[in-house]
Structures are given as C-alpha cells and as structure tokens.
Request: fold
Amino acid sequence: MPYRWLCRELIRAAGQIVHDSHALLILNGQIACAILAVSRVGEWRSLEAHLHGVQGAAGSNPVSPTTFLGQSVNRTESRTVNNISLDSALEQFLYSAPHRSPKTIQTLQERLLPFIAHLRDRIQIVSPLEIIRAHVDDFLSQISKGRRGKPLSESSVFGFAKDVQAFINYVADNLAPEDWPNPVRKMKLRRPQTRVRPLSKSQLADLFTLVDSQARTHFYRVRNRAMLMVLLDGALRVGELMGARRDLLREDGSLTVVGKGGKEREVALAAETVSQVNDYLDIRTDSSQFLFASKDGKPISYYAIKSLFHRLRKANPEAFSGVRLSAHTLRHTSATLRRIVGMSEGDLQTFLGHSNPEMTRHYSVMALENAAKESARRTSPMRDLMGV
Reply:
C-alpha cells in the first residue's frame, strides 16, 4: 500500500476541514503516527515540505513537522529507554499537554531551545538523563546576563527557570528510569512581585478614540473597537479572544470561551459590547466560525492583536506613558475597575477563571490602594489651607 501517498491525502483533507491551526497540527501528527505504526516506514522527508506548507498556511507553530512526527511515536516507548536525546525529550514535552496553545508552545521553545543548546554546546551532553543541578544553575546564570550588556529582568529569569524545571520534571516523570535522581526536585522558585498598572479611565477613552482614528477602513474600525470592548468587558486572555466562536455568543450577552488548560468559562458582556459586536458581525461576508477574523475570514492571530496595540501606542505614546498597552493590561484594568466598584473577590475569581484565590487577591490590594489615594486627596489638609 502507498502509505506516504495515503498520509498526504489524509493531511490534505484535514487541512480543508479543520481551520484551527493548533487542532490541525495535532491532527496531522496523529494521522502520520497512525500510518507510521502500520507501515513501519521511517522515511518522512518527502512529507516535510508538504506538512510545512499546510501548517505555514494555517499559521501554526514553527516546529519542524518531520521532527514532531518522528518524536510523537516515541511517546509509546518504555520509560526504561535511556538513550533518549535532548531534542526528542523536548519535542515530547512540548506536545505532552493536549490543550497547549500554539503561543504557549512557542514561548516554551523560546526558553527551552537555548537551554538545550547550552547543554549540548557548553556542557557537551546529549541526553537529558545526564543533566545535574549544576548545569541548570550555570544556564540560569548565563541567561540572566542577557544580551548586549543588558541583563534580563527578574521576571524573565523566573520564566526561564520555571520552564526548565517543568521540562526536567517531565523527563523524570515520563522518560527517566524510576531511580533517576531529579536534579530540580528540591529547586524552589519564587515568582517576582510584578505589577501590571491598569489603564485609567482617561487612558481608556484615549484608546477608543485612537481605535476610530487609526483604522485603515470602516471594517477594521468596527472590528477593532468590538475586539477591544470584548477584551475589556470580558477580561479575556488573548488566547480566549482568538478562539472565541460566533455560535457561543448568546443573545443575553453570555460568551463561552476556552481558557487555560482547555477549561471553559462564561463571561457576561454588557449590552453596549454586544451591540458593537453585532455591528461588526453584520458587515462580515465570510463564513468563518470565529468571532473575530480578518476581512477574508482567517482567524485573528496573536501577532495581529499585538501589532494593533503597538500601532495605537505609537500613535500617541504620551497618552500611555508608564503603562503597558496590551490585551493583558485590559484584563487587569477590567478586574481592577470591577473590584473598585464592589465586585466581591469570589465573584471576580469566577469571572476571571482563576483556579486559585491568591491569583485574584492582588486586585483587591490594587483596588484598596486606589481607594486610599482618592480618600487621601479628598481629606488633604491643603484643601482647607488653600480654600479649595
């Protein structure tokens, strides 16, 4: 049987049916792995160009398809196999969680590929089972120096350390022999206290003014305004916005989105937001299932959203001095404003989709700080002294 031809045809058909890039990547891997298991054919080079073209057109993750397909089969190997390579272990780790988004996978790559290169080139080891704690410490020490004399921030170093630890823990739990000494088992990480400053009401007004004035066409003005309103009103993560579907927005303004770990949550949008979204949907001519898309119906990408915020900030940098303009900032702004006007911590935790109340508590701190500042201004002795 022409196995490679069959694989090509199945993947081509999948590309015509499945329009979500991450789901397409996983489905392609499953198709190829199933056929490989039947045919025992190890030569996949002829598929690489085709797979790369399919995934590139869909905007999926830039991992080498041939490497991914080959390593996917290794997941069935026994944990007692000790000759696993660094690259093989990394590929298996990247795709070990079925609900990881392409953006999450890319972030893991950006942090772990330098670690793999460090192990291979500086330490000169080829297997993850050779890793010891000193190798990890050496990598974190080197990476913290940054580039061009500018050291990395504490948050950036923490991100590297967290993902390196997760990778090695995966090796220990899934690939290494039972008696392998996990070098990071006792490594304690403390997340740096970083504060995302929310936008003020005047900054929000400036933001929506810029959305109207900077849009290239009427379509993008209506879409971008609706998109920012949903981000702010629903306190959505950027991945939740990208995956939002038209059929999951109900007439009462309830929108079901899929958050971290594939968990569904429902957000209640205000009537003003729903009206703006409906105005946008009314001018769309495509049949895409996604709530937000390009003019030709392609799903909105992370980089398109990031580029939008970049253009808005560039149009009036003074208006947003001291704050980061991003989807994440709008999420923080929404949560902080809701807490200020009295939304309880429990309700806010549910609304944001937080699994831990500690993740929600810092919004209460920020709300109390803002309330204290307003109270301090109202009760300032200078008001009496100056006759205000």
Observations:
- Confidence is low (pLDDT under 50) at residues 32-81.
- The chain is about 60% helix and 5% strand.
- Residues 74 and 92 are 8 Å apart (CA to CA).
- The first helix runs from residue 3 to 17.
